[in-house]
User: Which sequence fits this backbone?
């Protein structure tokens, strides 16, 4: 039961990240204070391009995590370690944000990072 609850929390965290990053890409008002330091009134093109790359990375992480939960071996093996490292940087970046709303993103970033860390330890 604990595993199902944690897996649900991981996929909910992925969903939040995709929702927020997608909001930046389309320039949604709800994302203004929750992303990129909350410093923009309109997201500039370079931020949107970076967030398109981020969106692709999140989709890739979802695919990899889904495969891990179904027992499929992931190659190259360093990929999971890379996701943990990227996750730690994401946690630190969100925690250091000037925007109080963006600092809340530490929670889903932490859950996802913990999920990949647990898979790395297996």
Assistant:
């Amino acid at each position: 039961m604990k595993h199902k609850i944690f897996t649900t929390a991981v996929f909910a965290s992925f969903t939040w990240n995709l929702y927020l990053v997608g909001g930046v890409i389309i320039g949604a008002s709800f994302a203004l204070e929750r992303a990129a330091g909350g410093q923009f009134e309109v997201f500039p093109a370079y931020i949107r391009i970076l967030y398109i790359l981020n969106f692709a990375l999140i989709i890739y992480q979802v695919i990899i995590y889904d495969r891990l939960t179904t027992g499929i071996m992931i190659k190259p093996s360093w990929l999971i370690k890379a996701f943990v490292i990227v996750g730690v940087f994401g946690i630190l970046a969100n925690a250091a944000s000037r925007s109080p709303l963006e600092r809340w993103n530490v929670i889903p970033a932490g859950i996802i990072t913990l999920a990949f860390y647990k898979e790395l330890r297996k």
